[in-house]
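Question (not urgent): is this output format expected?
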Amino acid sequence: MKDHDELDLPPTEDELREAAALRDALERGGEPFATALRAAYAPPSLPEERHRQLVDAALAAPAPRGRVIRVAFGVGAAFVAAAAAAVMVASGSLAPPHDAPLSVSRSTEALFDQPFPREGGTSARVERIARARQRDLRRNQYARWGLKP
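Got this back:
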């Protein structure tokens, strides 16, 4: 990027020559870049007849067919709901819970036989607790399903 002082300097001969070439190209047209710049800055007006043709074509277009899409999604949702209900009934998820005793939350004292060191080992302790809780959760899920772990 140029320094602030360089931006305040008068244009060089090369810059003036390039600016004049760009101005001529904009006035002449023909070059895609110059045409795009001119159209962005001052777009030409659309002839009235062409405007009327475009409006008539847009108004004569058929209405979107949204009703078919809504019906298709509705039927699909009904099939998915029916399939989910059938799976739940077949798997026994709606059956009353089994009478097996569930594991309960407990202290983590039984997991550790030594006092904690002042520093370090935190990740290992957290991992050990997480594994124990995961094991309890799995046993509870099997008990609810009426299975033995």
